[in-house]
Every structure is written in structure tokens, then in C-alpha cells.
Amino acid sequence: MTFDKIMAGKDLMGRARTGMGKTLAFALPVIELLLKDKRPRARGRAPRVVCMAPTRELAKQVATEFEQSAPSLSTVCIYGGASYQSQNNAFRSGVDILVGTTGRVIDHIDRGNLRLHNCEFLILDEADTMLEMGFREDVQKVFAAMEQVKNESAATRQTLLFSATIPKWVKDVADKYMQKDREYVNLVKESDSQASTDVQHIAIPCHWQGRPTLLANLLGIYAKKDSRSIIFAETKKDCNELAVHPEIKTDCQVLHGDIAQEQRETTMKAFREGRLRLLIATDVAARGLDMNVDLVINSEPPRKMSGMADVDTYVHRSGRTGRAGKKGICITLYTNRQRDQLTQIERKIGNKFTMQGPPDQEDLIKASAAKALTEINNVDPSMIEIFQEKASELLEQMEPEKCLAAALACITGHTKPPRRTSLMSGVPDYVTVLFTSSNFIRAKGYVWNAVNRDIPENFANDIKQLTLTEDSMGACFDLPIGGLELVEKLIEEGSMNCPYSIPKTLPKLQQSAFQMRQQSFGGGRGGRGAGRGFGGGRGGRGRGGGGRGRRY
Q1: Can you give the CATH number for the domain in which 448 is found?
Q2: Which of 48, 175, 307, 522 has the least CB density, counted as fewest CB within 10 Å?
Q3: Which InterPro entries does this UniProt record tie to the protein (predicted)?
Q4: Dihedral of alpha carbons 298, 304, 306, 311, sign
Q5: Which structural domain range is residue 169 located in?
Q6: Does 424 map to a domain?
Q7: Which range has the worst mean pLDDT, 114-128, 149-163, 235-249, 370-384?
């Protein structure tokens, strides 16, 4: 859809889902036009193509696409952290296609190394990021430099903008710099999902205290032995802390702005080649990764400075998986306060999250055992002989099935009973209890009355997150692990009449009134202590009202 329009000399804005091949959409027609015009390739020639990208990783990916598609043309990639000397040598030799980050492009313009009088194509990849606050000024400097040499340039310049998302304000900025008759190719209609349809979007509640444990468990269940995974964190500090946390046993590396360029390239090479299976990264890695990732985990929903969900960032993160027709999984962890951000993301991307509880420990152990079985089947026969003597000794001490089960427990690292974790939040040392009623429950007070009657005060006072089920015929709450034995005794003594049970999976729960208002009205700012919405909360005023209330 873009090829003929670019070949016809039109300015163009192109929008497509992440993973649909935007880079080739502009690279192929541009290369075709360059090769048709057989100019002499003089030494020191200025570039005919200038392509800018927001990150070093994306710039390198785009440059590779140009190099592989047109090896006869000279392609140079420039970015911060790389040697000036090698880049200057490339300019002296002559360049046909220049790809770089905005900062280094402007730097070479200011130094007089990069001359723009020969530029026929100005390309902005990931245009939504390039034109955001912080990048917009840099882009405007390049356009201004282009305008200064316009009179001495014999060529007509085409401007091409490509991105997964093109918000309205990007179009407004494009009005200033692109031709009035520009083409707009949109492969993501407003009624369609902006995110890849090959990705399963999962949301799991998780208190921040239980985040490292839950992340490790999710890797254990969803990450295959030969798969690649990325955990996205909001800050560099979060990345560093997760990477060294004892719960994260998978070999991993961090990727963020403080990592030296040489180390970044080493890390990306290892990840690309499959020698490294897990990256823990900030959004520096969300754009420009040129390989399919099997599993993406957001440690929390991406958000803007305003506190609202950053939908564009979510689209780009989830777009690292489910590429080129392959299936992928994107899991987002969230707290109760972040539930409305998921609603905002759902509304914009057109996909519903599959709401799940944290994985059951038994499921985790079974998944680990399944992986171990695969590894056992791949053991070299010569190694089996070395262990046969000790295996015979074990078989004399234990029954064959128990012996093999114990060996699997050792292989998977599950030699002791796992810590119980909440199904509602993933917090360790809490267990989720289901209260079931034969009558419709109109308010939580009904459940609290039963809990206070049946459970001693020292445990009842520490109960968290009491929430009614979606059908209002029950409720779930988190009980400290110390009270589990007491509840199990109630279940045993009460038999069929006991309202309590320990669920293996979380039933569908009601949203809070605050979350429902977010869905209906889209938020806004509330009163003091309320955050977004119609007010309310502690000290709040207006609709939704204040007052803390006992455990409600």
C-alpha cells in the first residue's frame, strides 16, 4: 500500500501494528528510487537519505535493513556512545543512506560533518516518539537545517513518517513540515485493536511486596527453555533490584539508559543469539528490537506523568511478542489502585485482558516437572551410564516412582513445600479464602459479620481485600497464613454447610465503585486523597464521598 505512493514522489504517513514490517515499507521503495537514479558515487558525497529513529537499537535495526536490501549503497548508522572517528571517516568516504538518533544527527550538523543539501528523503521511524516532548525540538532543528539548504538543493525532498501509533497531535505537527497532498496509509482502523491480534493479553493482581516472587513464578510457567522473555520495569532502579533479587533465578541482564553502549550491544547480541534468555529493561528496549520475543511481562501498567495509562507504550511493549504471525503472551501485573489503568488500555487497544489470579504453586511445580522431563529425554546416553551405579543404590532405598519423583524435585529445585501466596495479590504468607452464601449479598457487612463470628480477632483484623464475587453470591478475602489451620478446621467440621473454602483459582470478582466510574466516565481528578475519578476516598469531597470506614 505504501510502495506505489512513495515511488510516485508523495509525502506519506504510515501506520501499522507493531511487527507488521514498517521498516521495509519505506526502505524498499526508497532503495528502488535511489538505484534507478544512477548518479556517480563521488568521494565525500552527502547522503541522499536521512532516517532518524528514537533509540540506538532501532537505528541499528533500520540501518541493517537498508544494508541487507541494498549492499551496493553506502549505509552509515550514527548514534551516541559510538566513536566519532569512524563516523567522520564514513562521511569523508561518502554516504548514500544515513540512519541515526536525533542527538547524534544534530551533533554532526553542528560540527559541519553532515551536509543536507543532497537529501532527497527525510524519514522518521516511530514518529510518535520522535515528535513527543523532548524529541520534538530535535526534529524541528533538523527540519530547520533542511530549510536553510533548500535553495542550494536541486532535489525535491520527500518526508516519510512511520509508526505503530499516530495520535492527532502528530498529524498537527506533520501539517507544518509535510506537503499538503501527502498520503496517509492506516492499517489500524479506529475500530480495530492497535495491539497485535496474535498476542494474548493477561492481567494478574499483585501487591508490590509479592512482585519478585510472582515474576519468578510466571517465568517458571510461561517461559520455555529455549524462549526469550522481557520484563519491563518503570525505572532503572527497579530493573537493577529485580535483576539481583534472589527470587529471579533465571540468568538475566538489565537494559536501560545507564548501561554503557558497549555493554548494551553485548547484551543485545547475546539476547538475539539465544545465549541470554531474559532481559529486564526500561522502555529503551521497547522500540527497535528486531526479533520475536515469546513472553513480555509488565511489572506494572505503563503510565504517563499524569498518572493515566500510557497506551502507546503498552502497544510497543506488547508488540515485542506475537510478531510475523507467531503467537505471544503479554502479562501485566497491577495493584488495586492500577485497575483503572487497565480499563483505559482496554478501551484504547480494543482488546480485553484475560483476568487471572497468580499461578497456583502446584501449577508451578508441575510446569517445572514437565520441563525437567524434556531435559531428561535429551541427556546423552554416555552420561546416563556414569550415574547408573548411584541410581541403583537409590532404588534399593526407595520405591521406583518415589525415587524418580524425589529426583525431579531436586532437578527443579522444589525440595521444600512452597510458601503460600495470595490468589488476589500474589503476596506471600497470605491465603485466599472463598466465602459462599446461599443468599444474594447486598453489602460486604454481611460477610464481615460472619468472619468476625467465625475467625478470632487477631486474624480477622489482618484480613485484606475483601471483595464480593461478580454474582454477589460470595466473597473472597486474604487471610494471614497463620489462620489457615483454623479455617481448614472449620471446613472439616462444617462439612457441606461450611461457607468457607480454599479456592485453587480465583472466581470473577466485582469491580469497585471507583473502577466502574472510571469505565463509565473516563476519570478526571478527584478530591484530596482520591486520585482520579469523581473524588471520594480519605478526606475526599463530592460524589463518592469520604470517610475511611472499617475495612471496606
Answers
A1: 3.30.70.2280
A2: 175
A3: DD_DDX21-DDX50, DEAD/DEAH_box_helicase_dom, DEAD/DEAH_RhlB, DEAD_box_RNA_helicases, GUCT, Helicase_ATP-bd, Helicase_C-like, P-loop_NTPase
A4: negative
A5: 3-186
A6: no
A7: 149-163
320 and 406 assigned to the same domain? no
Q: What is the pLDDT of residue 87?
A: 93
> Torsion angle of alpha carbons 394, 395, 400, 403, nearest 10°?
-10
Phi, psi of 295 (to 5 degrees): -140, 130
- Return the residue matching grid coordinates 512452597: 418
Q: How far apart, in whole angstroms, are the C-alpha atoms of residue 489 and residue 185?
A: 65
Point out which residues pair with 390 in neighbouring strands.
Answer: none
Find the CATH number of the domain harbouring 249. 3.40.50.300
Tell me which amino acid residue 25 is. Answer: A
Write out pLDDT tens, residues 47-61: 999 999 988 888 998
pLDDT of residue 152: 63
Average pLDDT on 68-95 reads 92
E strand or H helix at 90 = helix 84-93
Q: Mark residue 413 as left, alpha or beta (left: phi above 0; alpha: psi -120 to 50; beta: remaining).
A: left
Q: At what angle do helices 102-111 and 136-148 cross, to 10 degrees?
A: 40
Query: 231 and 159: one domain?
Result: no
* pLDDT value at residue 514: 43
Q: Return d(Cα 70, Cα 48) in angstroms, integer.
A: 14
Three-state SS at 71: coil
For 228-272, give the DSSP string.
Answer: -EEEE-SSHHHHHHHHT-TT--S-EEEESTTS-HHHHHHHHHHHH
Give how far Cα 233 sits from Cα of 182, 271, 359, 402, Å. Answer: 38, 18, 21, 41
Q: 400 and 441 share a domain?
A: no
The answer to whether residues 344 and 304 touch, using CB atoms and an 8 Å cutoff, is no
The answer on 206 and 181 residing in a single domain is no
Question: 315 pLDDT exceeds 90?
Answer: no
- Around Cβ 371, how many Cβ atoms within 10 Å? 17
Q: Is the pLDDT of residue 516 over 60?
A: no
Adjacent-strand bridge partners of 49? 97, 121
* 128 and 232 inside one domain: no
**482 within some domain:** yes
Q: Is the pLDDT of residue 75 over 50?
A: yes
Count of domains for the chain: 5
Asked, for residue 474, whether it belongs to a domain, the answer is yes
**Is the model's pLDDT at 411 over the cut of 60?**
yes
Close Cβ partners of 395 (under 8 Å, ≥ 6 residues apart): 403
DSSP 129-191: HHTSTTTHHHHHHHHHHHHHTTTT--SPPEEEEEES---HHHHHHHHHHS-TT-EEEESS-TT
Q: What percent of the chain has pLDDT over 70?
A: 86
Residue 445 reports pLDDT greater than 90: yes
Residue 206 contacts residue 478 (beta carbons within 8 Å): no
| Encoded amino acid at 368, one letter | S
Both 72 and 166 in one domain: the answer is yes
Helices within 257-399 (DSSP H only): 261-273, 311-318, 339-349, 361-377, 381-397
Q: Is residue 191 part of a domain?
A: no
| Judgement on whether residues 323 and 445 belong to the same structural domain of the protein | no
Average pLDDT over all residues of the chain = 83
Q: Would you tell me the crossing angle of helices 211-222 and 361-377 to the nearest 10 degrees?
A: 40
